[in-house]
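Recall the central idea of this unit: under ordinary conditions, the amino acid sequence of a chain determines the structure it adopts. In this exercise we apply that idea directly, starting from the sequence alone.
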Amino acid sequence: MPILVTGAAGFIGSHVCLHLLSRGEAVIGVDNLNDYYDQALKEGRLARLRPYKDFSFHQLDIAEEGALPAALAGKGITRIVHLAAQAGVRYSLENPRAYIRSNIVGHLEVLEFCRAEPSFEHLVYASSSSVYGGNSKVPFAETDQVDRPVSLYAATKKSDELMSHTYAHLFGIPQTGLRFFTVYGPWGRPDMAYWLFTKAILEGKPIRVFNDGEMWRDFTYIDDIVAAIVAVLDKPPMAEVPPSRVYNIGNSRPERLGDFIDILERLLGVKAIRQSEPMQSSDVERTYADMTALERDFGFKPTTSLEVGLGRFVDWYRSEWMAGSNTI
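Accordingly, the structure predicted from this sequence is:
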């Protein structure tokens, strides 16, 4: 049976599709191809998937009532990797309704689709490290309280976790939520710091450095993220009652923003023009994943250091993105 991947033209979604196709799975991808950032990047990701005979794609909005069952009737979908969402913390200050529609209404429509499939096996969905909000205790563990979000984006992701737990309780739908910690790598999102910094440094423009660089992020390379997602997908929560669980996926090694910029400068061979700015109210000072649960249940450990991962991104950016005359 094919695996459905929502957000298939997105950063993580396209990498998940490629991994599943490479191991012989049939994959159906859906994405609304919105204009949050340059669609050329999304089309480029899809271009890597289209040569696979077992890949098919539907452009649709998952938040539109009935869109999923109309497009996928008779496909026998029993496993879903749900990665479609309105991303970005700061953009949620400008366009809050986009987050409610995509992240909450869209998640509900996916849950209803699962509910209508009598032999459904497993829904793996994207949550976020943002749910930890202003928590001061580190590292962040899945058992920590997460009822103090500092952005609407974080609030929508916690809402997704609550809805999923409810549907698992009421209807027995096996589900696993994954709290991603600052994912980066080739084909990433151009609104993320590593992309913005790389572009600006190469163009000789200043970069915005919040809180004098005294911010810490648990950067997690895309290949490590994909390996964890697929491992989790292959092992639904059958023993839990209700069949619902949540895991962190991070590198479990926070890196200081100032040090991150130092690494990027070395890789690019160019000094950054650093423009110091105060920390924004929607930001948190530190993210740090406790990976005990994922390692215990799946034997998973991330393997990619920040310098290696950033090096791969810089190589891709120069050899493929810049060479293709793409602009953001």
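The mean pLDDT is 94.
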